[in-house]
Every structure is written in structure tokens, then in C-alpha cells.
Design goal:
Layout (H helix, E strand, L loop, with lengths): L4 H18 L1 H16 L4 E4 L5 H7 L9 E3 L11 H8 L4 H8 L8 E6 L5 H12 L4 E5 L1 H6 L8 H4 L2 E4 L20 H23 L14 H12 L8
Helix pairs in contact: 1-9, 2-9, 3-9, 5-6
GO biological process, one term: carbohydrate derivative metabolic process
GO molecular function: carbohydrate derivative binding; isomerase activity
Pfam family, one: SIS_2
């Protein structure tokens, strides 16, 4: 390990502590919106593009995760299917409405969580705008600081269009090392996963206090895991493509 690695590790941990404290109130509010959707038997749709799809992957069908999640996805948004084309795709106006329509997004009964570091491209902005127009709660996991430094390709930003913002506090450009002139060690994926994790914690506590059994996944690699997941698969399997 290099001499500077421990220092950077502490810097990263401090960043996570900072965003946890900074977002405490909004995490509670966001969890209330998700619980409202679950109690109405709605879905929590999650969306992102590029490397923000790592946040969507983290939200879907994983041990300890929320079973009521429907990921919104288009292959052309994933860098593994074409890196440069994926950037062009999230800059294309109209794609968000196409994906929401194809997913049968119901508006008020469903909530939407959008991961996007800068939140300036048409895809995340139009997702938030369209969902809110349909009466849904929209939670953005994004960085207004990064938005301020980026070209506004949609005229506005995800943070401005969302109802609730969970701020990753990630600087423009995403890189975090070396501190005086960052060129590597991006923070957004870590911050996205951390904020989603904290949102699940808040949601669990709210549900428990309200006497609501939260639909969560168990690891299929534990004894009884497959059996425990059977009820979630029966309830959500037809409504969430990709589960079955």
C-alpha cells in the first residue's frame, strides 16, 4: 500500500460521513415517500445512465434490498454495450418518456428514484419532469455542485426537477485524488450506494414503526433464502420484468 493510500481512505470515509449528516432530514422525507408508495402497493422505479446505472443495479434484486423495485433500463444507456454511444443516448431528448411509457409507469402510485452525478442531460431531467407531472414523488440522488459546473443540456437540472434531493456532495468531474488536482478515484458510485443504503435503513425503521412488513429480499445462498423470497416473486414477478 502506498504512503498516501491510508490518507485517501480516510478522506473517502469522511466524505461518506459528511453526506450522511448533510442528508439526514431529506433521507427521512424520502423514506416517507417510498413507504407511501409501498403501502399503496406501488413500485419504486429506479433509473440512471452510464455509471449511475451502478446505483440502479444496487437497488434491484439483491440480498437485503427492497423487493418493490422496478429498474428502468435501456441497453443503449449502459457503457458495456457501447461507451461513447451510451453518452449520446442519455443526451437524447424523448427517451425518458419512451421508457416510462414502456414500463407502464402509473404516476401517483409509483415513486421514482433517479441516480445521476451531474444531472444535466435530458434523460435524467426528463425522467423527473415527466414523473412529477404524473403525480409521483421523485427522489434525485445527485450532486448540485457537479450540476453547477456542467453544461445544462436540458435547460434545467435533475436537482431542480426532483421533489427531494439527496446530495452526494461530489465535486464537478467526480475525481477525488490527488486532492489539489483530482484526476482519479471517482466518488459518485460510492456515494450513490451509500445514500441508497441509508435510505433503506430509514425506510425499514419507518415501516417497523408503522407496523408495515417491508418486502425485502433474502440471500438465495442462505438456508431458507429461496423459500423466503417466494412470496416476493409471486407478488412482484408479473409487474417487474426481469425477475422471472
Amino acid at each position: 500500500m502506498s504512503e498516501t493510500a491510508p490518507g485517501h481512505a480516510e478522506h473517502t470515509l469522511e466524505h461518506l460521513r459528511k453526506i450522511g449528516a448533510h442528508n439526514a432530514e431529506n433521507l427521512r422525507t424520502a423514506a416517507e415517500r417510498l413507504l407511501t408508495a409501498i403501502r399503496a402497493d406501488g413500485l419504486v422505479c429506479t433509473a440512471g445512465a452510464g455509471h449511475s446505472l451502478a446505483g440502479v443495479m444496487e437497488s434491484f434484486y439483491r440480498a437485503g434490498g427492497l423487493a418493490a423495485v422496478r429498474p428502468l433500463y435501456h441497453p443503449d444507456l449502459l457503457p458495456l454495450h457501447g461507451a461513447v454511444p451510451s453518452t449520446r443516448t442519455e443526451r437524447r431528448s424523448g427517451l425518458a418518456e419512451e421508457i416510462l411509457t414502456a414500463a407502464g409507469f402509473r404516476g401517483g402510485a409509483d415513486a421514482l428514484v433517479v441516480f445521476s452525478n451531474s444531472g444535466v442531460n435530458p434523460y435524467p431531467v426528463e425522467l423527473a419532469r415527466t414523473a412529477r407531472a404524473a403525480g409521483s414523488s421523485v427522489i434525485a440522488i445527485t450532486s448540485p455542485a457537479a450540476s453547477a459546473e456542467a453544461p445544462k443540456r436540458a435547460g434545467t437540472t435533475l436537482a431542480e426537477e426532483a421533489e427531494i434531493v439527496l446530495d452526494t456532495l461530489v465535486p464537478g468531474g467526480d475525481a477525488s485524488y490527488p486532492a489539489d488536482a483530482p484526476v482519479t478515484a471517482p466518488l459518485s458510485s460510492l456515494s450513490n450506494a451509500f445514500l441508497w443504503n441509508m435510505l433503506l435503513v430509514e425506510l425499514f425503521d419507518l415501516a417497523a414503526a408503522a407496523g408495515v412488513e417491508l418486502p425485502v429480499w433474502r440471500s438465495s445462498n442462505t438456508v431458507g433464502g429461496d423459500e423466503a423470497n417466494a412470496a416476493n416473486l409471486a407478488h412482484y414477478g408479473e409487474r417487474v420484468p426481469g425477475l422471472l
